[in-house]
Structure formats: structure tokens, C-alpha cells
Amino acid sequence: MLVIRFQRIGKKGQAYFRIVVTEHTKKPQGEFLELLGSYDPHKKDLKVKKERIEYWLSKGVKASPTVHNLLINKKVITGDKKQSWKAKKKLITDNSQPTTSKPPEAEELKTEEPAKEALSEPEKSAESPTAE
User: Fold this and answer.
1) Is residue 118 part of a domain?
2) Within this chain, do residues 121 and 61 fall inside the same structural domain, yes or no?
3) Which range is least confidently modeled, 50-59, 92-101, 119-128?
4) How do strand 16-23 and strand 2-9 relate by DSSP bridges?
């Protein structure tokens, strides 16, 4: 199955894309059937061969969601935009759960117990010196 998609060129930090027709199983940087245009995301400059894009779309070739949305923005084709990516969901782990989820009654019991222990310790220490 053929697709119209981006092929990244340019060096690190200076992306530049070709818009190509290629087999969907080929590597993104591999060979392509036809060069349909280019896109510079820094300058927002799009150069396309409109007739050739319309030709390939009429033959049943599908555009990737990103290319499809870009062509709609530049009014090369008409239609609705497609969702091109989804945000990743954050994984909830046991360690990341807040500690305030404990009932407040349990916290109150913990604060009362040390106070009772503190009262019982001075009694023992008071008995020890007198016993010697």
C-alpha cells in the first residue's frame, strides 16, 4: 500500500522534510517513488506539486495524518483534519500515591499513643532511681 508521508532530511536541530510517495513498509529514510514537495518547519514554508498530489490521492494513496493536516492548512486539499498523535497517559504507581489517603482517625490514634508512652516512661524512670 502506498502512502504520502514526510521524509526527514537536514541536520540535528534543523529539520527539513520532503513529502514523498512511498510503500508503507519501507523505512522512513529509504527510497521513494516520487518527490511531491518539501516543508521547512522553521520558516513554515511549504512547496508542493498540487497536481501530482491530487493524482496520487485519486489513485487511492492515503496521506499520513500530519501531511494530511498540513495540506488542509495550506488549502491544497479539502476535508476534515485527522488526529495525528495522542498524549501519553501518566502511569500511576504505588509509590506515587499521596500519603494523605489514610483516614484522619488513624492519624489521631498514632498521635495519642506516643503521648501515653511518654507518660509511662517517666514513671518507670522515677521508680528506677529509688529502687537502687
Assistant:
1) yes
2) no
3) 119-128
4) antiparallel
